[in-house]
Write a structure and sequence with these properties.
This protein is of the alpha/beta class. It is built from 15 helices and 24 strands. The strands form 6 sheets. It has a 7-stranded parallel sheet, sandwiched between helices. A 5-stranded antiparallel sheet has the order 1-2-3-6-9, with no helix packed on it. Strands 14-13-15-16 form a 4-stranded parallel sheet, with helices on both faces. The chain is globular.
């Protein structure tokens, strides 16, 4: 967001747009503190990242942040008043989708001049940023088995295979007590297949029980997977039970390891990068620093031919027009609106985020409702045209900025993005989410310096330097892009160093359990 203007260094307030009637507290404000920018004293204590009225806002008047409606005044609000969920309400209103109105041509970097990274090129041309062997369970009943198989491959046992990043087990809790056929059944199979063919996996073993609804044989056939020396399957009831299946799984992985270890990184174009965009534990600074800076990095990535994947459909509710106005066609824009309409039906009658309620951490961080959270969340996608809208875990083939439907729950959204082909995840946070993922690693971006310093062991990039006046949003975007290239080339992220990612495989559970 190039229109970000921060008041002089002595000011504790941030004005995001000239038309805004609220300002954001850069630092905590005390009761009675002089606020010369608006000619009054603070009428309440205001935490950092929260809002304060810049002028009188009458009851029923729209509250503007970034020149965007985030709610209406629930009562008269005076200049210097603290503005949050206690005196503002969420009121839905008509929004013109204006399909394609803001589409601007992308200034693509010529192919010979595009950035590059060191990636693993697979035989079919797909490019990975990591080189794992993955084990998938078709059903919850084989989850313990695949975890035991993976546990066998300790760092000591993998020392002879230095080009293999590890053996990762992707256990899940469904696959049997579910309606089939059903949307849930299709989503689960699509997710498993997306991981099975993921470019960050050099080899795959799928393990089933034998009597589940999600049969391994039909999973493989229905998803167009082909068994080979690097794509193996086991069924516990056929092999001989728990212990025998674990032994057979270990033997299968041992046969894959030399083939996986033969892979080598080589220079490849940044056009092969597919970045899943996530935010979690957001605060009032997320939409000022980390999210727009990540959006600036994605604009750079798109210019270099890469792909940026925005998701978390409930977290664009209220600002979806920011995306439909950038849709390359009315059909693309309408598909996004159709997914939002589906979510409205799906969450009807529930105290869900789509219906306005944000989590405790968001509230404490300064976000009053879903419109305000969505405003920041949508910024991660940058400013380039919206090229396509995909279903959850659907393979993403289109380059450029795209949208993949998903819940706002971070592990579920990231799982879908990785299944769709994301080979890296960029995750912004204001409160400090401790998240990691496999086989695509997660890069975490902090929205503010105090949190970054407090949780530096978990955070990769400090976007709080924007607030500190050290860098502007475009400069931070360039820094993020360069960091992405380094991590794509093999430099471990903080979450990888901590060993995270073994328990964050969470396919979307959306169906009836019986």
């Amino acid at each position: 967001m190039s229109n970000l203007t921060v008041s002089p260094p002595v000011s504790p307030l941030i004005r995001l747009h000239a038309n805004d009637n609220v300002l954001v507290a850069k630092t905590a404000l005390s009761l009675g503190q002089d606020l010369p920018e608006i000619g009054v004293r603070a009428r309440a204590q205001v935490p950092a990242g929260h809002k304060i009225a810049a002028c009188r806002i009458a009851e029923g008047e729209r509250i503007l942040k970034y020149d965007t409606v985030i709610g209406m005044a629930a009562r008269d609000i005076e200049p210097g008043d603290y503005v949050h969920s206690h005196n503002m309400k969420l009121v839905d209103f008509e929004r013109d989708p204006a399909f394609g109105q803001d589409v601007r041509p992308v200034d693509y970097v010529p192919e010979p001049e595009r950035a590059s990274f060191m990636g693993f090129v697979r035989p079919d041309g797909r490019v990975g940023t990591r080189n794992f062997i993955g084990i998938l369970s078709s059903v919850n009943c084989s989850a313990s088995v695949i975890k035991n198989i993976a546990a066998h491959f300790t760092p000591e046992r993998l020392a002879a295979f230095p080009h293999v990043d590890g053996v990762a087990a992707f256990a899940q809790t469904s696959g049997c007590g579910m309606s089939s056929p059903s949307e849930h059944f299709d989503v689960l199979r699509r997710t498993l297949a997306g991981y099975a063919r993921h470019p960050n996996l050099a080899g795959v073993l799928i393990v089933g029980l034998g009597c589940e609804r999600n049969q391994v044989s039909s999973l493989v056939e229905s998803q167009g997977l082909e068994t080979s020396k690097l794509m193996r399957t086991l069924v516990m009831q056929e092999v001989g039970g728990t212990r025998v299946t674990i032994e057979a799984g270990i033997a299968a992985i041992q046969e894959m390891l030399p083939h996986a270890n033969a892979a080598r990184r080589q220079p490849v174009s940044a056009s092969h990068l597919k970045i899943g965009l996530e935010c979690g534990g957001s605060d009032g600074f997320s939409g000022i620093t980390a999210n727009p800076a990540l959006g600036a990095a994605m604009d750079i990535l798109v210019r270099h031919g890469g792909t940026a994947i925005l998701s978390e459909t409930p977290e664009i509710h209220g600002v979806e027009y920011m995306l439909t106005r950038r849709a390359v066609s009315p059909e693309v824009g309408q598909k996004l609106l159709d997914r939002l309409a589906w979510w409205e039906r799906y969450t009807a009658g529930h105290n869900a985020q789509f219906n306005g309620v944000v989590g405790h951490g968001n509230q404490a961080g300064g976000l009053a409702n879903i419109f305000e959270k969505s405003l920041g969340s949508a910024m991660k996608g940058g400013t380039t045209p919206l090229q396509a809208v995909y279903e959850y875990a659907e393979p993403i083939e289109q380059h450029g900025f795209v949208f993949m439907d998903s819940p706002g729950y971070d592990p579920v959204a990231s799982t879908g993005q990785i299944a769709s082909g994301a080979n890296l995840i960029c995750f912004t946070t204001g409160r400090g989410s401790m998240f990691g993922s496999k086989p695509a690693p997660t890069i975490k971006l902090a929205s503010n310096t105090p949190m970054f310093k407090r949780l530096e062991e978990d955070m990769d990039i400090n976007c709080g330097v924007i607030l500190d006046g050290e860098l502007d949003v475009p400069q931070m975007g360039q820094r993020i892009f360069e960091e992405i290239l380094r991590h794509a080339s093999g430099e471990p992220t903080k979450s990888e160093a901590l060993g995270l990612g073994d328990h964050e495989f969470v396919p979307w559970h959306m169906g009836i359990v019986s």
